[in-house]
Amino acid sequence: MWTATEATGAAADPYLYSAALALGGYAAARAGEDVTQTGGAHTAILLGFTLLPAPLMAAALVVQSRYRLDARFKPPRWEPPR
After folding, report:
1. Do the beta carbons of residue 16 and residue 44 sit within 8 Å?
2. 3-state SS, residue 9
3. pLDDT by residue (tens digit) across 13-39?
4. Secondary structure of the chain: what % helix, strand, coil (to 5)?
5. 58 to each of 25, 30, 50, 53, how far by Cα in Å?
């Protein structure tokens, strides 16, 4: 369950982060070019690294908290050899 939730977050996060950068007005540059970022772009970078992962992790915790392996899985009882 953890692996599936982590993979989903890893797949969705770049799209959400790029959307945040686009909304903030981030300007991309090529090698050798200098670009001055706006205040909105700086804010988008900051929020994208701090606040954006928080709801994704909270959603992952909600999904994982509902999954109980121990309630469904009963390991076989060990008996000593006779």
Report:
1. no
2. helix
3. 888 889 999 999 998 888 888 888 899
4. 65, 0, 35
5. 27, 36, 13, 9
